[in-house]
Protein 1
Amino acid sequence: MNLPLLRSIIVISIFTGLVSAADPQLMNLLMPDVKVVAGMNVDQAKASPFGQFLLARAQAQDQALSKLAAATGFDPRNDLREVLMGTTGRLRQNGLVLARGNFDTVRILAAAQAAGQKVESYKGVNILTGQEESMTHALAFLDNAIAIAGDLDSVHGAIDRRSAANAIDPALSAKVGQLSGSMDVWSVSIVPLATLANHQAPNPDLNGMLSSDALKSIQQTSGGVKFGATVRLSAEAVAGTDKDATALADVVRFLGLMVQSNAPTEIAAAITSLVQSLSVQTDGNTVKLALAIPEEQLESFVRSAEQGKSLREHRRL
């Protein structure tokens, strides 16, 4: 069993498998200096019409998840309940992915060891570890209900906090409580975007975008998605000044037009509809975005995007 692959499958399947507030026990496992937190109520997302649509496609198409389930007894499409992710915002730190669900830890560990995976113990907790370039990745299970993944130091820290009270930034905690109680998928960041722009991003285009004055003025961001008959997306970006917020709103509108003009033919109509329905408003130094998409239209968009991808791959052969 390849540990980075297992961790990636868990995370990716959460996003594609898609309310109560964030689980306090998972929140307590986050690092005290966490600056970026994201999460999802997997049960609620899966129960939505769009979640059911994605699950049906995953059941029919995803062989990797079926193999994972056969080997370990863990199927993220059925066994995940909630996920919480956190990082300090430093690009080179992996951070934590915390999951609540049903984990057959004995079977998972046995499968990992049979595949030659290293298993070590830390304070009574078994940890699967693997090396990827200069970073040691880890996957641990506190019990059959909570899994922890991330870089080894971060996982050790989460295990240390399992039986101790922990406190993160009060403003961040309050925002997490607000969004996690009203959204199915959400994220909050109190890291100024300029901090990220000071690092060399792996993608040169992304690095150039982060360096623009309008985007570098962003001090905080938050947002989420609520599934239903209409899928609603909302987001906020807090800029340094009112003038910065106005400039940022103009950049968002411009980027929307750029996406629209460069959309592949097979999804151009859907992209145009999305851009035209996007609401961009300013309130002082805050930019607020809102988008409402009929669930059936979102399904159609996914089908069109998949068909377009298949067609482009066929043409390259």
Protein 2
Amino acid sequence: MATRAVTEKRLTIVVYGADRQLWAGGTLRVTVRDLFRGLDLHGEDVRGSIVEVRLELPFDAGQLYGLRLSRPGHRPAWYALSRQSFIRDGRVERDEVVLRLMLVPDDAESFDLAGGFGRLVERRSPFTRSGSGLEIGQYLALEPPLKMALLNIEAKLRETLLDGTPVLDFVRGVRLVEPDRVYLWVLAEAKNGVRRSPDFANAAGHGLRADRPELPAHPHSSKHTRFEEGNLQLSFAEQVEDVAVPGEIPASCFSVDADIDLARGPGHAAEWLRNNVFERGHKTDQRDVYGLLYPQGILPVYTLAQRERRLRVA
């Protein structure tokens, strides 16, 4: 028997600041938009750390709705609501969803990035593997956006699975760190694992870079599809290379371009996000990524400061 579609939906939004504490920064603006029709369905100002919204949200034609949470001086938090957002146990459509969203100040900064390397060492992260990972001096020389990119992607790799194994376990070393991606050495077997995984889909790869002639092209690309936002994308080089790790047999590895995409989905959803959420440009800002990872339960090994708690803005 088919399950009756429930059109009246209740959204319970638990709001956090960048310091991972419940929101205490004053009034918020909540907007819900029908991304297919380009219409705003709801808009109101609310206070408090728990927000409830009731709306008629039909999903009979594959509709997608954009939820936007904003406050002046902050990067908007968002969530793309599809019918799947309300499905439980694989088949039952519920009338309620509970979301955890994080608002990050425009000028958010971290005071503990320097200690991130030590915390990766404690976790025995391959990002700090002797001989093929980063040394402490190399890490400390990175500018803050690069440190954040490294720590965000390390955390995402740790929580993304291939056949039950964290993708991070396939990493054998770090080649290069950039503000929006990290180039890694990854065991060759991971490439077939990604291809087989139902959680990854084909994506556009990357060609040769004129500004980085030492890097190969990375044409074979796949993107994780579990979330509407903040998904891991892995782009593999064509040929394997032997990577020597002290104390271990040299391993056949692919060079991999690893980054975290802000959003996936239909073109009009991406356009809405670009114009209403990530309007600061197309270059990934790692503070946006930090805010997207939190609702996924992913905590990089650094924190951002919440301006309201420092300045006590009402």
